[in-house]
């Protein structure tokens, strides 16, 4: 092993990695769940409240209906998040067992697949040959390599399903209560709807901006798109209620 300026190659690599800090945003599953919950929470109850306001019902009725929708919506969204994460975990386990079996029953084919994957990255046979041999000596690493690079699967957190359900449900509640706040303070729905629209659009703009900032998209564009979706949904609900009202 060579030495460079007093460091071995391995030590030099460690020093370089410690000195270099990557500044990439890793969009985690939690962030995704918060975005799903808040965006739906802001939009659906907002449209419901606007629609009922168009039907000229009292604020108290809109508030009761809105709270009921937030409760039902949070449970439904949370359950959907739980089932999605659980399905993802079950799929990973099935593929993991299949790969574990294949490196035993068809090791030559699996080794050829490793070589093919490395070749796609520009490695030559004399370069990827030792890597293939090293993986064959370490079945656990071999399976892990195939899961990541052949199937593109990462091992999910065992608690992911429960945390996903709770995160989406709570985020939905937080978002869903925003358009309902004016109806708690203003008895007349015809007056409360204007305040609800203004408050919710501001919340949608702020949420869209933050979402765009943390997901690497253009914040202002994300803010406008998010607010536009909410505005269209509420306007459609309000207009339909006005049309079909007896």
UniProtKB/TrEMBL annotation:
Family assignment from sequence similarity: Belongs to the CCC1 family.
Q: What is known of its domains?
A: The cytoplasmic metal binding domain (MBD) is located between transmembrane 2 (TM2) and transmembrane 3 (TM3).
| Membrane disposition | Multi-pass membrane protein
Cellular compartment(s)? Vacuole membrane
Keyword Transmembrane helix applies: yes
What InterPro entries is this protein classified in?
Ccc1_fam
Native species: Trapa incisa
Catalytic reaction(s) noted:
Fe(2+)(in) = Fe(2+)(out)
* Summary of subunit composition and partner proteins: Homodimer.
What are the alphabetically sorted keywords of the record?
Ion transport, Iron, Iron transport, Membrane, Metal-binding, Transmembrane, Transmembrane helix, Transport, Vacuole
**Bilayer-spanning residue ranges:** 61-85, 161-186, 192-210, 222-241
Q: What is this protein called?
A: Vacuolar iron transporter
The entry lists its GO molecular-function terms as: iron ion sequestering activity; iron ion transmembrane transporter activity; manganese ion transmembrane transporter activity; metal ion binding
Q: Which GO terms describe its cellular component?
A: vacuolar membrane
Looking up Pfam families in the UniProt record yields: VIT1
Any idea what job this protein has? Vacuolar Fe(2+) uptake transporter.
> One GO biological process from the UniProt record?
intracellular manganese ion homeostasis
**Does the UniProt entry include the keyword ATP-binding?**
no
Query: Major location, coarse class?
Result: membrane
Source superkingdom: Eukaryota
